[in-house]
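Trying the structure run again after the queue cleared.
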Amino acid sequence: MIIQAIKGATIKDSRDNFTIEVTIDTNIGKFVSSAPNGKLKSKKETKPYKKSLEGDIGALEELSDYFSSEHIDKFEDLRRIEDITKGHIGANALFALESAALKAIAKENNIEAWEVINPESKKIPRLLGNCIGGGAHSENVNDKKPDFQEFLISPDNNSGIESWKISLESKKLAGHLLRQKDSYFRGGLNEENAWTTSLNEREILKELNKMNVPIGIDVAAAHFYKRKKYRYGNPKLDRTTEEQFIYIANIIKKLGIFYCEDPFYEDDFEIFSKLLKLVNDDCLIVGDSLILTNYKRLQKAIEKKAINAIVIKPNQNGSLIEVAEIVKLAKENNIKVIFSHRSGETMENILSDLAFGFGADFLKCGITGDVRETKIKRLIEIEKSLSK
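Done. Tokens:
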């Protein structure tokens, strides 16, 4: 496959913010992909664009001619794209470009996109869905909301079809439980299509424990860590790092949490390590903001024994070649892999091919809403194709 021309454009994501869509014109046809947007950004993560979205669009078009002699026929050939674009575009633009190229390679070889990564893949990632929302992704209900960002459900089922059915039923039940417990609940949804509520995290988890489905939390603690304290708003109180450690450990132990993401500030590898040592294998201690889909930060987490699971957001890195290296390093160290959507999503569903192709343990992509459902439906398509 040869890329003959590249065109970038701006489109709106699910939060009505602009993001990038890339179209490549090749010798076998046109292929389109887009990148999502994250809301909470760290200064340490790869920039989504080198200078600006419009600047990256211009850079892609200026680089078009440099691809005319490059044959891109297998996954490893994506490195040629990275060699040409290095220093000219950011992570979002690179991700959209490489995703479009992945689709083109698949078409050229008459296979699915995931098969370009690994034609032997067989494991369906376990669904992980945001059921109730809080933190930076949710609006207040009666001037209150949970400080934790996500309350997740994850049916322990190796079938995407059955897992989604259970997730939909569980989310409906969660709404019923919220209506009974929270007098201000009106069925509102946040930007990831999760329920919004005025309850705090302990109240929510006690309700979710009434359901027969494994539950997890994304604390996203970095967003309420200020001046060396965790500053809660519901109810208002401040916790030191040690108090936060004790609080999170008690929640995991007493409220049956199997998955705990970003319970501490994003640079505190030592306190992550202390928690992992305490819970052992009873809970997944998950690094998202801690790792930032970055190979060197994963190396440090492994050295510190800080996590036993990692969130991978492909557009946060941009390079699918490096994503492959991160997955390999994680698996070599028995670290579970979670491929994740972003809060500002598009209808692009390549995430499911990436999760399946790379042999992820989980696919985190919400439960309802068209930009979330398209990824689950793609995973189900893959599952059905395996039985043929």
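Residues 160-181 form the longest helix (22 residues). Worth checking whether this holds up in the mutant runs.
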